[in-house]
C-alpha cells in the first residue's frame, strides 16, 4: 500500500461532502506543504 495511505484517507474524509444540483465540474485539491508554498501555488493557479 501507499506509505501515506492513512494520512491521505483521513485528509479526504476530514471535509464535509458537497452536493450539487445538476451537472458540474468539481475539483478537490489537498495542498500539503508550508503556507508560503501553498499560497504561491494558488497565486499561480488563480491570479
Describe the structure.
There is one protein chain. This protein has helices at residues 5-13, 35-45. It has 47 residues and is mainly alpha-helical. The chain has one domain (1-17, 27-47).
Task: List the SSEs and their pairings.
Blueprint: H1 5-13, H2 35-45
Could you give the count of β-strands? 0
Q: Count structural domains.
A: 1
**Binned strand content:** under 5%
| Ends distance | 37 Å
Shape: flat
Q: What series of H and E elements makes up the topology?
A: HH
Count up the helices: 2
Radius of gyration, taken over Cα atoms and rounded to an integer in Å: 14 Å
* Biggest β-sheet description: none
Query: Which range best describes the helical content: under 10%, 10-25%, 25-40%, 40-55%, 55-70% or over 70%?
Result: 40-55%
Summing up helix and strand content along with how strands pair, one would put the structural category as: mainly alpha
Low-pLDDT residue spans: none
In round numbers, the mean pLDDT is 86
Amino acid at each position: 500500500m501507499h506509505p501515506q495511505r492513512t494520512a491521505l484517507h483521513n485528509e479526504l474524509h476530514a471535509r464535509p461532502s458537497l452536493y450539487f444540483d445538476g451537472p458540474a465540474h468539481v475539483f478537490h485539491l489537498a495542498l500539503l506543504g508550508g503556507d508560503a508554498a501553498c499560497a504561491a501555488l494558488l497565486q499561480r493557479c488563480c491570479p
